[in-house]
Amino acid sequence: MAQRQRPGALSALDPSATETAALLAAAGGLVEAVMTARRDGDVLGRPRGDELAQQLLQARPPADPTPVDEALATVAAVLATGDDNAAPGELGYIPGSGLVASAVADLIAGVANRYTGLSAFTPAAVALEQGVLAWLTELFGLPGTAQGLLLSGGSAANLTAVVAARDAHAPGAVGRACLYVGQHAHGSVRKAARIAGFTDEHVRVCTSADGLRLDPEAVRIAIKQDRADGLLPVAVIGAAGTTNTGAIDPLPELAELARDDGVWFHVDAAYGGFFQLTDRGRQLLSGIERADSITLDPHKSLFLPFGTGAVLVRDRAYLAASFAEEADYLRDAEEELPALPDFGSLGPELTRQWRGLRLWLPLLLHGTDAFAAALDRALDLARWAARELAEDDHVEVVSTPELSILTFRVPGDDAAQDRALDRIHADGHVRLSSTVLDGRVVLRLAVLSHRTTPDTLARAVSAIRAAARLAAATAPAANGARSS
Ligand SMILES: Cc1ncc(COP(=O)(O)O)c(C=O)c1O
Q1: Domain 114-353 class, CATH top level
Q2: pTM value?
Q3: How many Å apart are CA 454 and CA 434, to the nearest integer?
Q4: pLDDT at 10 (0 to 100)
Q5: Ligand 1 mutation target, pool 189, 293, 297, most atoms within 8 A of CB
Q6: Cα–Cα distance measured from residue 324 to residue 330, given in angstroms and rounded to the nearest whole number
Q7: Is the N or the C terminus of the chain less surrounded, counting Cβ atoms within 10 Å?
Q8: Ligand 1 touching residue 308 (CB < 6 A)
Q9: Is 412 close to ligand 1, i.e. is its CB under 6 Å away?
Q10: Domain limits of the chain?
Q11: Which CATH number fits domain 372-483: 3.90.1150.170, 3.40.190.10, 2.60.120.260, 3.40.640.10?
């Protein structure tokens, strides 16, 4: 900004109304350019920007103001490099989208900078957030005692839940505490366990015969053995959509065993949770309403910009017990629910951004049906892709989409899968990813972005087919994917 101290102004750090308008107009131009480029844009293919990265590593903030255009030109230059993981063709990992309405909400929340760690200062802002959280707890069929908390992402949500479960079932005895997870539990679950003080060997992996899901019987046996050995079973952690294949653990059976065996039932629904907005998703996620806690990730299946996870806990007293700063608060939590929560006393953060607004504004502006329709489309597109690929003699579909992820192989060994992935990525329009299942590299296609259209997916499928044909032609003594 060009100004220094202005007469009548409090600080040179606060732009005048005219300067604010100019700054917003310049930023708006950049936002519009990003959106336009992305509409039919590629995920890959931009330069990595190594030279720019070197310059930026050396750059230090100047003592004097920089003109807006010059500063934003640097941002534009950064955005001209690297992968656009919010483009329509992002089908790798767990796609993120980034809703404009949510980004605008962030701008407003940042400027307003209301303090929402405690409810007393700005009750209506806290109430706005609490209203969205109540919508979430109702959406997942949790009772009136439930409480949600918005955090930075799924990892923070899993950590918060694991800490609450630990304190509920092994207070002061984490050295003997055990967790029960599936082989495909997300890495953030193991990370949460470690941060919360569980030893690695006390995180029991209990996988079913198909290798994809958590096996309730195996969990029962492990819990029994652990109790006999004087250990403390704390929680069974199911996935409502694993990151690798999107498989849903048997939630009703896990809920049953958690009740019978007196352990906490956490569901990591970071990827799959918001399919609950669709009829098919609700059926698939049945049993989730019996969870003691649920991890959601609005920056995944609700298309928000990165930086929003959520944990829902069936009984808010457990959050208060683990996270309240003052012991006195525990007394309140056991009494009648206060009208407004102190978010700072229900999770690891005290001062926090007003996250509720970034969730509330897009839900209000678009309506929940628009989100349900986008998620329904993701379910349809993944099923369509799986059918198309299953009909191709050169593609072995390894796992069909329970939600919106499928895995497959092309003819040849693991190295052939990596080569096929490079070929699929050659024109930059779509990105898939790979993982390892049962000791074999598989290619993986995940549909989640609201921007992914049937056209995008048709391009992905034809790129996969072409890569599979080439793999079949070059694989030694391989006539098809199934022979590898
Ligand atoms: C199932 C699952 N749980 C947890 C996480 C971690 O979420 P975040 O990356 O938002 O911390 C992920 C991320 O992909 C996930 O897929």
Answers
A1: alpha beta
A2: 0.94
A3: 22
A4: 62
A5: 297
A6: 7
A7: N
A8: no
A9: no
A10: 17-39+46-82, 114-353, 372-483
A11: 3.90.1150.170
